[in-house]
Amino acid sequence: MKIGFEAKRVFHNTTGLGNYGRDLIKSLSAHYPENDYYLYNPKPSQKKLFSVDTNNVREKLPSTSFYKKFKNYWRQKAIINDLVKDDIVLFHGLSGEIPSGLRKQGIKSIVTIHDLIFVRYPKLYSFFDRKIHFLKFKKAAVNADVVVAISEQTKADIIKYLKIEASKVKVVYQTCNDAFKNEYDNTQKEKVKQKYHLPEEFLLNVGTLEERKNAFSIVKTLKNINTKLVLIGRETKYSDGIKEYIKKHGLDDKVMFLKNVPIIDLAVIYQLATVFIYPSIFEGFGIPIIEALYSKTPVISSTGSCFSEAGGPNSLYVSPENHHDLGEKIKYLLEHPEKRNELKEKGYHYVQQFNTENVTQNIYEIYKSVLK
Hints:
By secondary structure, this protein is of the alpha/beta class. Helix content is 45%, strand content 15%.
């Protein structure tokens, strides 16, 4: 069976959407090697985010100078010619998009939609971006044979905002990179600790420093807590406000900013952290929570949205607007190591349902059902 993928983000996106595609394709290739997987990439990648190093995975680029120049037209429409030529029987849009004309050519399709944050929180997006996102997602959801949602929260939003029948939407949770599932020894941990000058005890937050992720709320708790915070992620204008607050309140020695941390180092830092905090306002799922649970690090996250789906019953939750409550829960965990140990073990047990084998099998079952 030949399966095609809209793979722009596999080759060009360094964060969540790219990770989703890369992890899924690698796992499909390993667990179902009898198939051929074609990755349709609109342009050569500058960074080596994904290497095609197996016989059953192929990268496909636009084949003419015209389509190389007009790559968006290629990926939205002209790609159909390549799919037919390559005998693709199923096409998977990994991040909310599929090309026009699939059904006319008898090619089955599914599309994964990660979230509809641009509808729920329009102020975070420009008018133009909101309209483009909505039209693309609506078109894909209507025309695909099956819509995959990465959480029950996202499924509810697809039904509500895109007006898609519930029976057409299937929930398949995500997993995380295998690096977070390994246990690192004390030598490795000490090496990473020295490399980044990490303290013995620290709070950890991972994700782009932007308004929706709400890292500012963690910083605000530090005035009354004797601990340190490590923020790992790309900085935006939102970071400027955080740094001004830190300077104003004399918290410079309590907050560390890191970015572009290699994945193995990041996995070790998760295991070194005392508590992982993810006070985001809204997400499609919340992969960093999964990464923390696999790392046996206790989690504090937000009420609402999808966070309890990812964190389970043995993580702690606070309203993302209530940094006072967040501070109390941080202090409670720092002062009660026995509670941290309990959350670690129960959280690690809970997160096993998101293992690579389960996620891959669930996606593949959808492939088979669509092709029947």
